[in-house]
Amino acid sequence: MTPTPRGLRAALATVFALVLAVVVGWAAPASAHHVLPPGIPSTAAAQSQLDSLTVAAKGPQTGYDRSLFPHWVVVDSPCTARQVVLVRDGHDVVTNSNCQPTSGSWYSTYDNVDWSGDVSQISIDHMIPLSEAWKTGAASWTTGERRDFANDVDSPQLWPVTTSVNSSKGDKDPSQWMPPNTAIHCSYVKAWVNVKYRYDLTVTYSEKSSIQNTIDDRC
Fold first, then answer.
1. Residues whose CB falls within 8 Å of the CB of residue 210, separated by 6 or more in sequence, listed in order
2. What is the pTM of this model?
3. Cis before 156 (ω within 30)
4. Is 3 inside a domain boundary?
5. Has residue 210 been placed in a domain?
6. 2 domain-assigned
7. What pLDDT, on the 0 to 100 scale, is given for residue 1?
8. What SS3 state is found at 191?
9. In angstroms, rounded to a whole number, what is the distance separating the alpha carbons of residues 59 and 123?
């Protein structure tokens, strides 16, 4: 069989990638616009923050409801927290008069996917899940404090990711779940630690141990 010329192979690969992007909204990651949320600390700072966290068993789920953490409220009129994150971490984002993105692309760090399709298919993940926060300190907060936590666009608490990987994470901590994209593990645990530190939330022994192992191995 006559081998396919290198130039033709490259051209075919490009055409295939373009077709795939059009059909399912996916394209190979383009590192030029892979934006991470703000506030991820240095490794040294994350280590210091981890060391200062209180280790305790998680409290009960009793009384928890997502409505107790009012989220996607307006934080920069007319933009909601969700819209701010989509604009903040997206690439070439165009919005309408209500701040809703109408086009653009977003990098889902957890699973290493670029998305340029329907923006409703992008979830905004709470780095510290709301139910996790409830069980580690937020049950005693006021509704206003929980609202601030759920809409914090200035810390590494909110991440745009694909709905599938967000569903996979659920409310698991790092001892129970880590992103399939191992390249982000260092940033992921540093962000987790920073949010817990900012909001004075507790960690379990297994959670802290898992985070420490990741810092030692990945950072």
1. 173, 174, 175
2. 0.85
3. no
4. no
5. yes
6. no
7. 36
8. helix
9. 27
